[in-house]
Design goal:
mainly beta; Immunoglobulin-like; 4-stranded antiparallel beta sheet; 1 helix
């Protein structure tokens, strides 16, 4: 009996070793600093994105957050489809006493953005990672605060492209940090 490894995608499998080989040119990694609301780099921070033809994975490490506040990280993707950027949730959690945040998320080819567009270009799209504060964690609202764009927010706080300072005011929501991956 002869065993031949089989793959359903376009990556190849070596018949002698059974090891999948990837097109190295199709795997990309980039790291950038995270910037604050004044567009200044935050020392000791990074946003690393791994791209391949199947999607993108990000790890966003930051500092200076308010302990006990709820935060969400968002993929904001430019150039994937005609028109304005598309966005979707990447990660969210309540920050502990150190004020450090470590957020990770993945966006697969074919995933649907909040505006209904389909993610098509993981290798070429410009990706901005936007960190959003949702103010202090509020009992009974934490799931919404760490999974939705306006969870726990009081109306009137910005959710557009501008960045603002962080706050420990209940109901305050705003984009406070960004990392840009061209």
């Amino acid at each position: 009996m002869i065993f031949l490894p089989f793959s359903c995608d376009q990556d190849s499998i070596d018949a002698d070793t059974g090891v999948e080989s990837f097109n190295k040119s199709a795997n990309k990694k980039s790291s950038v600093n995270v910037s604050d609301h004044m567009h200044n780099p935050i020392e000791g921070t990074s946003s690393t994105i791994h791209r391949n033809k199947k999607g993108i994975t990000v790890n966003f490490k930051t500092d200076g957050l308010i302990p006990g506040n709820a935060y969400t990280l968002w993929f904001v993707v430019f150039g994937d489809a005609p028109g304005p950027p598309s966005s979707t949730h990447a990660a969210g959690h309540i920050v502990g006493g150190s004020g450090k945040g470590n957020f990770s998320g993945h966006l697969s080819l074919g995933d649907i953005f909040d505006n209904g567009e389909v993610f098509n270009n993981p290798l070429t799209a410009e990706v901005h990672m936007a960190l959003r504060t949702h103010g202090p964690a509020q009992p009974g609202m934490i799931s919404d605060q760490i999974h939705t764009i306006d969870g726990g927010c009081t109306s009137g706080f910005p959710s557009g492209p501008s960045l603002n300072p962080d706050s420990d005011v209940v109901g305050y929501c705003s984009n406070i940090q960004v990392a840009i991956h061209p």
